[in-house]
Each structure stands twice: as C-alpha cells, then as structure tokens.
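User: I'm putting together notes for a lab meeting next week and I want to include a structural view of one of the chains we've been expressing. I don't have a solved structure, so I'd like a prediction I can at least talk through. The sequence is below, exactly as it appears in our construct file.
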Amino acid sequence: MSAQANLADAEMAPFLLAQQSHVRGLSAQERDGLVISARRVDGQWVVVSRYGDDRWELLSKTTNRKHAITFDLVEEELRDSIRQVMYRFYCRGRAGGKRPGASTVQGLFNDLLPFLRHLSACNITRLDEVKRLACTSYVKLVKEWAMANGKPLAAASIDRRLRAVEALFELSQHSTDPMQAHPWPETSAKHMAGLSGSDVRQRKTPVMPDDVFATLFQKAWDIVQRAPAVMDLRDEMDRVAAADPTLEPLAVWGAQCQRLAALGFHAGPSGLAKELLDVRRACYVVIASVSGCRNHELAWLQTGSLFSTPGNDGEADVVWWMRSVSAKTDEGSTTWMIPPAGVEAIRIMERWALPYQEAIAKEITLRRATNPLDPEIAEAQRHSKALFLGRGVSGMARSLSLRSWIGDLRTFAKIRCGLDWKLASHQFRRTFAHYAARSQFGDLRYLKEHFKHWSMDMTLGYALDESQDLSLYLEIHDRLEDIKAGLVDTWLKADAPLAGGYGANIVAWRGSEAVTIFKSHRHMVKALASSTPIRSNGHAWCTADDNLCVGNDLERTRCSGCDKSVIGHVHASLYRGLYDHLKEVALLDDIGAGAQQLVQRDMERCASVLRELGQEPQGFAA
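Assistant: Thanks for the context. Below is the predicted structure for the 622-residue chain, given as structure tokens.
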C-alpha cells in the first residue's frame, strides 16, 4: 500500500461529510449514532468512533502520533455541551478557517480543560451561565498559576489557553447551550497575553550550535558506517535461533552468547540489542540532518523511497531524492534532495526494518483470520513498509511516535555523544536551513558535499515542481535573510571598523544625514540587507552580483581596495597571518625582483586593511 493511499485512508469517509455539522434538533439516538471516525479496511469502511462514545479516536494523516478526546476528563454537568462544541469544531472548524486536523482538535480540547475546571470550581454547570466575571477571573488565574509555579508561563501558552475560551464562545453558538456574551469584548487573547504588535513568525526552535551539531553528526555517521557489521550479527542470531526450534529460550540465549563471542562480540544479545537501537537513532540523525525533514515526514519514510535523476552540475553523475509524505501544509507526496550520506542511512534502515515489517505482515494475516473488518488492519497497513519502527507497550510493531523520538534522541545525545543539549526532532529542520543558508557565506564546516547543492539559486539547476518541499526552500531563504540582517546590523554600528571599498563607503554613509530617511534602525538594516547581494569568500564579504573577480579566488589581497568588498574585524586575524607570512617571504633573496614587488604590494594591501581595522602591522616599512 502506497504512502499516498495510506494518507487518503486517514481522511474522512464520504458519508462523514454528509452529516450535519451540529446536533440541534436530533434525537438522542440520532445524535449518539453520528460517526466521528471510520477506517477503510480492504475497501470497506468500518466505524471506529461515534458521537456517543466516551472516547473519540481521531484519525490522523500522520503515523507518528495518535489523537483522541476523552470526555471523562470533563465534569459530567458540562460534558454534553463540550461534546457538541467539539463536534462542531471537528466538522467545520472556526469561522473563516478550514476543517481542522486531528492534532488541532485534540489541542483545542486540551487547552479548554483548565477553563472547564475553573467553571466547575465556580459552580457553573452550563455554558449559558458563564458570565464575564468568570472569564476575567480565569485570565488572572492563568497568570497567577504561572507565577505560583516559579516560572512565568510563556506568552504563547497564555495566548493559546485564552484563545480556547474565545473558540468556546464562538462554537457554542451552534449548540443547545450557547455562551451569552463574548468573554472579553473590548480586548483579545493575544493582547492579554502580551503579544500585541509582536512578530507572529518569530521562531522559538533553536539552531544547534556548531560544536553540538558537529559532535552529534560525527557520532551518528560513525555508527552508520559500522551498521552493516551490526546487521550481520543480528542475522546470525536469527540463524542460531532458527537452527533448533525445540530449544528452550534460555538455551537459545546461551547459544547466541557463544556464537557472538566466537565472532568477537562479547556484550551478548542484550548488548547487540542496544547496538541495534543506536543504529536506528544514528540513521535518524543523519537523514534528518541532511534532508531537513520533519518528524512525521521521516515516520512516513518507507522501503523503496529512494530514486535518482541525472546530475547537471558537472560534478555528480546522479542526484539522489527521497520520497515521503508531508501533512504539514497538505502537500501529500513530497520529495527531498539528499546526499550520498542520506542514501546510505536509508538503505541501512531498509535492512534494519525487515524483522518489524515481517511482524506487521503476520499481524495483518492473523487479524484478517479473526475479523476481516478489524479497523486495526488498516492501521497496521499504514506502518507495514515504514522504516523507523519499534514496539510499544502493546508489543505491536509500529512507527515510533514523536514522544518516543524525543526520549531516544536525548538519550543518544547525552549517553552516546556526551552532550548536554536538549535535543529535539524539530531542531534538525532549522539547523538544516541554517547551514544551507550559511553555505552562501563560505563558512560551511560540515556536510560540504551536500550543501554545495543548496545555494540560494539552486532552482536554476533543479526546477521546483509540486512534489518538492517548497516550505523548506522558504525556511532556508528566511534563515539567509536573518544572517544577512545580522551581518548588516554589525556593519552599521557606529564603532565597527570596516575596510574594503564598500566597507569604507558604509563607514562614511552611516555618519551622514541620509540615514534619517529610514523609519528606524531596524528598517534601515532590513532595507540594506534585502537590497545587497552578500556572500563570503573567506577573507571578505563580497557584494558583487557575480563571483568572477580574482579576489574571490586567486588574488585574495585584491579585496582590500575593491569597491564591492567589506572587510570586518572577523577577518583581521587572517590578514595579520597573511602579512606575517609575507614578511618571511620578503626576507628571501632568491625569489627575484618581480616576486619581491608582488610581495611588497600584497604586504601594503594587508597593512592597509589592518590599519583600517584599528591594528597597526608590526615591522612594516612603507
């Protein structure tokens, strides 16, 4: 079953769309019989949850999470009203919005629970009894609760909880028990949370520091390279277990220990199991690092997801691509370009996952024999070809959940890498965008062979089509703009020394009255950053529209007088080192007069740069 088919099965059955989006006017029997979710089992729809159930199973497009609403968490007096509200939200969403996904529905329910507990504490048993005082006192309670726990609740968290109350008011208007007035008609959740005027696009996910990312990736890559040998040991253990089916488990374990020891592995089957878990974690780190995929996109990754196309950059015979499914912005089947390191990690995972895939195939066969319409058959099929599999408390093989990956990744970072970094899956995407953007500035330290493809004009070489992850391109572009803005901001500081022709112009310009044409310093930085092409050649920032100047390659000191270059304090050590090296060459008496003139010229260029940066060169004779 293809990933795209699996995705379709997670969506609403056609008859669900025909149901009315509220329960007013329905009898109790009609209301309780409304279908909430259904799965298609071998072409036939099977109901999973109905309106009257105490627990609604919400079918998600992704395989890395399960979503449900448990109404037992709501006080009995309010339970019927909240069930009506959630049904309306599930069917239609909020005014002006689209129908929400399972995660959003569960999120609203969870965000409402504190407010519902507050209403119960106020002895309010109906939504039409909710007065403005109860709502405003809840705002105070939310903020006091945060302070009582010794750590202020994030503004975004306060906003989310208060927006849930606004949603409750709106959605209850379609119920038999509507709230009578807006909770705070003169203001909004965003304003009360302190977010008015803030940049809603502000990112909270941190980029991994260079040393953290380098250590993490290097350890993961070392494990990936050793993985085939670990797989061979696992296969040998399977052969030992299958050699004599009459042996008791303890005897099989002993035979496996002996065989492992004979092969030079002395940690036994339990030690091998830990090595296999490390392989899975390491492959995840490598693939996430070089693709920029989200967790649910890696969870969808299946056997056979790799394919290649002819290269056209003159450096590689083929370009490798990875196919998966993205549900973040409803792209569906999506492709990502990956380097050979990612290809190797995926191929290892295709071998690693085989025993789990076989277990799922056996499970499906057994379920069909017991009940051909068991809805769990469809769920098992969604995971049947997945790569990142494991066994949960139920013992069934399934794609690892996001929560499991959080624990796995932090264990890997701390135990295997010795890092004190709070690693999370979503950091890989931002870090990927960060390094892809930095590749234009010439300071890329890791994954060089991959990121050479991710220059910002990559689309000239590879045409974007509907299957590619456009949002990842936008992430890279945003990160590039952030880097450029940060760099320009340092240029515009009054005390920042700058050399180079363009640098000298900036120094003169930032002290002129022309700066006052901008509304603010931030606006000035943004305008200059967006209008100036900037890249690093290692010894200067070049603002030329092309990279044809020899100063970008052969004649580095030429940047000192180029009207397209900016040289900052960060480059000072390079020019000092070059100057000191040239001094040594100048002392040689066998390089000829022409070479001496070139050395003297380059020394003068370096000395000029150092003086403009506020550093007097030692031993310079003009």
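A couple of points you could mention at the meeting. The mean pLDDT is 83. The chain has 23 helices and twelve strands.

User: Perfect, that's what I needed.
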